[in-house]
Amino acid sequence: DRGRGCASFTFSIEAICFGKDAALPDVISKPPPPFPSTENKPVPLKTGEDEHYMLAIKQDLRGPMKMPYFLAVGEKHQAIDRYSQKEQDNEKEQETWTPDWRRLPREIKLKKANKKVCAKTKKANISDPKSNLVAIQKIEELEKKDEEEEKSKDEKDKTKDKKGEDDEAEEPEEYDEEEHEE
Q1: Closest by Cα among 37, 147, 58 to 103
Q2: 40-64: per-residue pLDDT in tens?
Q3: From CA 63, how far away is CA 97, in angstroms rounded?
Q4: How many CA atoms lie within 13 A of 82 on its CB side?
Q5: Which string of b and e fits 44-55 if b means at least 16 CB within 10 Å?
Q6: Residue 24 near residue 18, CB atoms below 8 Å
Q7: According to the UniProt entry, which residue ranges have a biased composition of type Basic and acidic residues (predicted)?
Q8: Is 103 in contact with 53 (CB distance < 8 Å)?
Q9: Cα Rg of the chain, angstroms
């Protein structure tokens, strides 16, 4: 009969981990405070000339990082009054500010891009046509010597072959049993 509109569900206090004799928690009737209580108060900020200088550097470094890259650079218009030109020049001087880099870590310091110096390429040795002719003549001479040596070797081989044939004719043939068995 559980799902037919009857209130048959019973609530037991033991299901939510309270005993029969245990006191139930008090009902909270007011909202929590907007901020938690500060038991440990923060250390007061240091004030002085050095701190102000470092704060100015921090703001100066953060400023360009937050600026969008697509801002147009202001164009120079010739001022009619000389007084306004002086004011503009004073503003430019105030805008250009270089921090004391001795007080800052090296990582923050802006680096100039050094151009890498490439090693000079060696030029190919282009020899004169005269030296080429000399080299060609030497090569031809060496080829001729090689040919002459080959001819002399061939002649020696021919004379040895003739002598070898004569020696073979004088010696009787040796009897080879293996040839006759087959």
Answers
A1: 58
A2: 888 888 889 999 999 998 988 888 7
A3: 13
A4: 0
A5: eeeeeeeeeebe
A6: yes
A7: 138-165
A8: yes
A9: 54
Q: Could you give phi then psi for residue 126, rounded to 5 degrees?
A: -100, 110
List all residues 6 or more positions away from 89 whose beta carbon is below 8 Å from its beta carbon.
none
What single DSSP character describes residue 3? Answer: T
Among 90, 109, 104, 110, smallest CA distance to 55 is for 104
What pLDDT is stored for residue 141 in this prediction? 94
Q: State both tokens at 58.
A: 């921090």
List alpha helices for the chain, DSSP H. 49-66, 82-95, 129-170, 177-181
Place of tokens 């218009």: 77
Match 């500060």 to its residue by tokens: 38
Residue 157 and residue 163: Cα distance in Å, rounded? Answer: 10
Overall residue count recorded for the chain in this entry = 182
Residues 17-31 as b/e (b if ≥16 CB within 10 A, e otherwise) read eeeeeeeeeeeeeee
Look up residue 9 and give its two tokens: 């569900």
pTM of the model: 0.23
Hey, CA dihedral for 64, 65, 67, 73, is it positive or negative? positive
